Amino acid sequence: MTDQAYNFAYLDEQTKRMIRRAILKGLAIPGYQVPFASREMPMPYGWGTGGVQVSAAVLTPDDRFKVIDQGADDTTNAVSIRSFFERTAGVATTTVTTEATVIQTRHRIPEVPLAEGQILVYQVPIPEPLRFLEPRESETRKMHSLEEYGLMHVKLYEDIARHGHIATSYAYPVKVEGRYVMDPSPIPKFDNPKLADCPAIQLFGAGREQRIYALPPYTQVVSLDFEDHPFEASRADHPCGLCGAVDSYLDEVITDDAGGRMFVCSDTDYCETRQAAGHRGKDAA
Amino acid sequence: MHPQTLEGGFANPAADAAHAFRSVMEAVARPGTIHEITGARPPAPLSPAAGAVLLTLCDTDTPLYLAGAADCDAVRAWLAFHTGAPLAGPSDCMFALGTWDALLPLSAYPKGSPEYPDRSATLIVEAPALSDEGAVLQGPGIRDTARLSLPDIGAFRQNRALFPLGLDFLFTCDGRIAALPRATRVAAPAEMAEAR
């Protein structure tokens, strides 16, 4: 039931129009960070205020909404954002990736390939990929306008010099349509290949940093690398302990204080669907 | 005041605007696709689709340029009541509305700055017809190629050459909308045939 004390999807209409205009400019300039007047939301910064505002601006009453936090539907952040929109927008919710029309995500892309008609909304903490290399916004903005991305390659090169390989394992920078270098939000680099040529619309919202950016469907997205150190999407070298999947991204779970551990799918919907279909891993009860 | 001024807005503003925005967003995200957009009944000569776009995206924060026949008392009064958007000339507008010929020349509109390419105008072009034939489109949002009936080809090609600066176009006709964002590459059908 909708909480009638609030407008549909919590935000007032003027705020939604402002966010919607930013989303359209973001889609017109893939990978470019559009400034927007982020509002205070009834949750702390860092809990997905940007994603929630983008979701509020795109949701219609007919949507089916899914929220994942590091792949899981049942963690605090996911549960509270899902119930927030159940209350303020009255939308139907689901945990099944294929049934959802709008999916808000923190730091993962679902394992099941997305389809046309779906929208993936990312929660982004630091939208500026160059921020840890150059703290001044005035400078990073200039670097983007001049397409001056040498510093990012130096950072990746220093990884190689120090570790022998590119050690960046999440928030791995990508180049969009040969123009803008973009932070894909802190998704594991395992997920990076899924950003490219995706049939769904991908929207990124950073609430504290007041930026929105977007990838239209079928956009060319290339992970930065070197010819002699090509990009590699890595995952833990184990099958999932519960469903036995060998193609999914895994979380390492410590099970006792004697070195016991297990690896399980980070995408709970993917894991549960596989278990329901009869797949079993070695740790399954 | 003409009673029609007060009518023709969204019956259910939040839900209608949400549906209308999704049509606009799908059109922009997938250039060349044509989407239904309903809910507005603006005065002539505005199309229902153009009316819905204005109600969805325009408010007191968005200077609007009315070009040609769209700049009439009925439209001005309707927009003032329903959106409150201040009217402006082409060089200061965020949105412009009119037929293709009325909106020209494109050089008059803000196309953004290198550091803020988003600060550019969006042109709402009232089209006599809208179909998925004609110019060949390629780029973000399009798997292989798409087709869209465009009023011109050279102008859009020049606009693409400015990328990441440039103008974004929405085409409205009756209750339907299509879009051509700046990132889309446009070619004449004959050129595509030659390339093969």
From TrEMBL, chain A:
Highest taxon, organism lineage: Bacteria
**Catalysed reaction per UniProt?**
alpha-D-ribose 1-methylphosphonate 5-phosphate + AH2 + S-adenosyl-L-methionine = alpha-D-ribose 1,2-cyclic phosphate 5-phosphate + methane + 5'-deoxyadenosine + L-methionine + A + H(+)
Give EC number(s), comma-separated.
4.7.1.1
Q: Which GO terms describe its biological process?
A: organic phosphonate catabolic process
Listed InterPro entries:
PhnJ
The UniProt keyword set, sorted, is: 4Fe-4S, Iron, Iron-sulfur, Lyase, Metal-binding, S-adenosyl-L-methionine
What Pfam families does the record point to? Answer: PhnJ
A Gene Ontology MF term for this entry?
4 iron, 4 sulfur cluster binding
Q: Which residues form a coiled coil?
A: none
Protein name per UniProt: Alpha-D-ribose 1-methylphosphonate 5-phosphate C-P lyase
TrEMBL record, chain B:
- Supply the InterPro entries for this chain: PhnH-like_sp, Phosphonate_metab_PhnH
Biological processes per GO annotation: organic phosphonate metabolic process
Bilayer-crossing residues are: none
Q: Name one Pfam family in it.
A: PhnH
Q: Which domain of life does the UniProt lineage start with?
A: Bacteria
What is the name of the protein in this document?
Alpha-D-ribose 1-methylphosphonate 5-triphosphate synthase subunit PhnH
Please give the organism: Lutimaribacter pacificus
